[in-house]
Amino acid sequence: MTTVRHQEPGSELELEAHFKALGTARIFLQLRPWGEETLVVCDEHPLRGLGGALHNPGVEALLQLRHRGMLARLSRIVEERDEGSGVLDG
Predict the structure, then answer these.
(1) Residue range 9-31, pLDDT digits in tens
(2) Kindly report the CA angle at 70 between 67 and 72, in degrees rounded to 5?
(3) Among 1, 49, 50, 84, which is most buried by a count of CB atoms within 10 Å?
């Protein structure tokens, strides 16, 4: 189960994700203007439960890899949507 804790449409989304035995984690996504593009910032860290006790630099490295994959998939979805909409850059 995931709960929305805070949102600012078009710029911020903060979630609390429940991972059964591991407890909960805070996931924060922020969109920032970056020239003509958009920068997506993703921050995740444990809040409660076993996940916090197990959190260490190795787990952090795995989270970074997971975020890269997630952001790459998000990028593909957005680019495919833009291509299908007939919107031209420039």
Answers:
(1) 999 999 999 988 888 999 999 99
(2) 105
(3) 49
